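Shall we go through a protein fold together, starting from nothing but its sequence? Please make up or recall a protein chain and show it to me in full. Go ahead whenever you are ready, and we will take it from there.
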Amino acid sequence: MELIFPIEFLVSGTPVSFQSARPSSKSQWKQKVRAASDGSLPENHFACEGKLAVTLFYFPVGPVQGDVDNIVKLVLDTLNQHIYMDDSQIERVVIQKFEPQRVFSFTQPSPVLAAALSAQKPILYVRLSDDPFEELA
C-alpha cells in the first residue's frame, strides 16, 4: 500500500540525542518514534522512494539544555526503511523548539499540530511531506 502525504504524528517524551552515551536510551527513543509513526501509517505499506521534507517541532516542559539539532538523527534513522527507503531522500529538514516562555501562535495548525499544542509536554511533532518545496513559494 502506498503512503499518502503529509504524514503527521506525535511522540511523547523528551527526545534523546544521537550523542547520548546510553545506548539503551537511544534504543528506547527509537522504539517510541517507531510506535508513534505506526499509528499514522496504513498496514503493509511500502516505504516511499521519492524526495521528502521533514518538520520536527519540539515542545519541552521548560528551557532546553542541549542543541536542538541533536534531535534529528535518531528520528530520521528510525523512519529509514520504514517511511522512506533511504535518508538520502530527505531534501529538507526543519526543526524548531518552542519553549514555554517563548509563546508562538500558529494561525492554522493541522489537527495533529493542534493536538501537540494542547498536549502534556514534552512532546515532539513530526511531519513528513512529499513536497520539499511546499513552504518556500
Remarks:
- The mean pLDDT is 93.
- The beta strands are 7-12, 52-59, 90-97, 123-129.
- The chain has three helices and four strands.
- The helical segments are 23-38, 72-79, 111-118.
